[in-house]
Amino acid sequence: MIEWNLSAKDKNHLVSHSETIIGYIYTFLAYLLWGFLALYWHALDAVSSMEILAHRILWGFIFVVMIMIFQPKKRIAFFKLLKEFKTNFKQFFYIFVASLAISANWLTFIWAVHFGYIMEASLGLYITPIVSMILGVLIVKERIQTGTMISMVIAILGVLIITYDYGKIPWVAISLAITSGIYGLTKKFIQTDALVGMCIETLMVFPFALLFLVFIQQNVFFGSDMHITLLLIFGGILTVLPLLWFAEGLKRISLATIGFFQYITPTITFLLGIFIFENTVTLMHWISFSFIWLSLAVFSFSMRKGRTTS
Predict the structure, then answer these.
(1) In a 10 Å sphere around its CB, with 0-12 CB exposed, 13-18 middle and 19+ buried, how is residue 150 labelled?
(2) Which of 14, 33, 110, 288 has the fewest CB atoms within 10 Å, i.e. is most exposed?
């Protein structure tokens, strides 16, 4: 029998390495699921976008509450935060803005899938990191590196090219990027546990979703098609799961590493648009996306170089 005599340093290294691998898995699964969600919403094309959104919020909130029930520490933190509403008013304001931004983002993406704007949705997901950086510079007054500025200019050129090709502003792409950017920006100011924050986020929009379903879509809970009903219910679970996986991944790996994972979702969406949804990809589309991909390469290189020199 072989005995392993590991030092405390070696043991810590093994634990750290194991946690990093777990972080990779959580983050990869989150972005992978986000990428393939387009197929799920497409399966619900008989249901209106607003109705899907309402269900997504409703069942997502119920699922989060069910998780909270089995985690006493999270539950205590949740009620403590509610009690401190007056002293933590700014926190609730940021959470409210985050809940509105993510709800608008979900609605826009579902609408894009239903009405065949999947390529434009992919474009919006690709330019999200650049928009986030622009918001950071304008609002948080973050310092910007030369390489990042170059990547912004290249991305804007890509958007202008596709705007010229469409003959109109690609509002789906811009809306997705801006709402994602606002959501990410507000999350920087939210100082609370991920699960607790998610519970409050969904709680804030839950009443609107419930009112919509009860008074406008009155047959929604027990419709004639049980298949659709089950898809709507599980849509809430599929909304919460990647957010929880992402939060777990964020605990274990660096933001720089997560930055590379974030391109999984738009790439999957882009490929789905070509091979599954059969969207027409013109030469101008390819040129525009090439500019976006180049801007992301410059952006990633700039961020990595900035971290190694700091």
Answers:
(1) middle
(2) 14
CA quadruple 49, 54, 59, 65: dihedral sign: positive
Q: List the domain boundaries for the chain.
A: 19-309
pLDDT digits (tens, 9 = 90+) for 232-288: 999 999 999 998 898 888 778 876 667 678 889 999 999 999 999 988 888 988 999
- Give the integer Cα–Cα distance in Å for 255 and 298: 17
Q: What is the pLDDT of residues 142-151, one digit of tens each?
A: 777 788 788 8
**SS3 call for 152:** helix
Q: How far is CA 274 from CA 118, 148, 166, 286, in A?
A: 9, 30, 18, 12
| Tens-digit pLDDT profile for residues 58-88 | 999 999 999 999 999 999 999 998 888 888 8
Separation of alpha carbons 296 and 58, rounded Å: 35
Tell me if 35 sits within 8 A of 246, measured CB to CB: no
Instruction: Give the tokens for residue 155.
Output: 């991305």
- What is residue 120's predicted lDDT score, i.e. its pLDDT? 92
Of 14-18, 88-92, 297-301, which range is least confident?
14-18
Residue linked to tokens 């013109």: 282
**What residues contact 262, with CB distance under 8 A and at least 6 apart?**
31, 128, 129
Q: Do residues 206 and 55 make contact, with C-beta atoms less than 8 angstroms apart?
A: no
Is residue 189 within 8 A of residue 71, CB to CB? The reply is no
